[in-house]
Amino acid sequence: MKTKNIGKSYVKPFLIGTAIFTVLILHFAVSQFIALDGEKDESVSELINKQPVIIEPEIESEPIESEPAESVSETKIVSPFERREQKTEPARAIEKDAINRKKAARESRTERLRRAEKILTGI
Question: Which of 5, 24, 41, 82 is 20 to 30 A distant from 113 in Cα terms?
């Protein structure tokens, strides 16, 4: 008869834990729903939906004159480090500019998200 009561000791705490978890999830969902349906600040929604604008610079390049291809046996394999050294100054400047634009877009996106979070939390 004692074997019948072994499983019952686990059922009650499990049901209580499940009930508490369900209540917390419902409370969070309802509070988010109320926060979204309450007063909508248009500046916040515009701030969240606004995508970063990336402007590509116009590159004025001279036509590249290609040299006749050499045979495969004479082709030299160039390492990435050597390729980087072979780049011209305008190419390096364009590459640095692209990296800086990506960093600026990433920073502005995180800054907008921080501002929106502050507005939503009321800080």
Answer: 24
Residues 27 and 82 in one domain: no
Please give the torsion angle defined by the CA atoms of residues 17, 22, 25 and 29, in that order, rounded to the nearest 10 degrees. -170
Residues 6+ apart with CB under 8 A from 113: 48
Q: What is the pTM of this model?
A: 0.26
Q: What is the pLDDT of residues 10-20, one digit of tens each?
A: 778 888 999 99
Give the integer Cα–Cα distance in Å for 4 and 103. Answer: 65
- How many structural domains comprise the chain? 2
Q: Could you tell me the sign of the dihedral formed by the alpha carbons of 7, 13, 19, 25, in that order? A: negative
Q: Look up the domain containing 16 and give its range.
A: 1-38
Structural tokens at position 112: 């907008």
